[in-house]
Amino acid sequence: MRSFPSSASGSSRCPCAKPPVSPAPPRLHVRERCNNNSDRPHRLLRRAVMTPSPRKIYRPGLLFAILTLAVVLGGCASLPPPTERIDRAQRALDSAREVRAHQLSEEEFRRAERQLQAAREAEQARDRVRAVELAELAEVNADLSRARARARAWQEQVDEKAAENAALRQSLDTEGRR
């Protein structure tokens, strides 16, 4: 067992005593490593230690080529045919017809039919953007006409029930007076 001098006796044989630790050497800065005492670090050390400039990292020619390729490929891509949108609009019109929208909400239903027909004509003329827009409008108007037709049908049912309730109330009043 090693012995370390203690503060009291100088010959202590304590098993938990630790040897003294030497402090770590201070870190040197780039300026201190330069041979001359100028304010700027040596150019070789500056390249080795400091972060390279963005020009070196990103290579502007390569970045320009990648962006140009992305723009060219994106511009050449064509839109898919609008048949799916037109089919969805047709299904919405059929759904509206099932709840008698052509009778109860005639204005919106006719507008949806006209827009669907215009979307089909735009598809035939290969104007895909216009065809998609018109098909979406037709679908929205068909949904609107279906919702208004359902609301009017429910209102008719409410009016019928209110009339039945009024008739029952009147019959109860006449029986109560007898």
Features:
178 residues; mainly alpha; Substrate Binding Domain Of Dnak, Chain:A, Domain 2; 8 helices; 69% helix; 0% strand; flat
Task: Describe the structure in brief.
The chain has 178 residues and is mainly alpha-helical.
Average of per-residue pLDDT values: 77
- CATH class category label of the domain at 83-177: Mainly Alpha
Q: What is the name of the CATH topology of the domain at 83-177?
A: Substrate Binding Domain Of Dnak, Chain:A, Domain 2
Q: Note the beta-strand portion.
A: under 5%
Q: What's the order of the H and E elements?
A: HHHHHHHH
Query: Would you report the number of β strands?
Result: 0
List low-confidence stretches.
none
What is the count of DSSP helices, taking H or I runs of 4+ residues?
8
Rg calc: 43 Å
Shape: flat
Main β-sheet: number of strands, strand sense, barrel status?
A: none
Termini gap? 122 Å
Helical fraction: 55-70%
- Tell me what the CATH architecture of the domain at 83-177 is: Up-down Bundle
Class by alpha and beta content: mainly alpha
Keywords: Coiled coil, Membrane, Transmembrane, Transmembrane helix
Protein name: DUF4398 domain-containing protein
Coiled coil: 102-171
Pfam families: DUF4398 (PF14346)
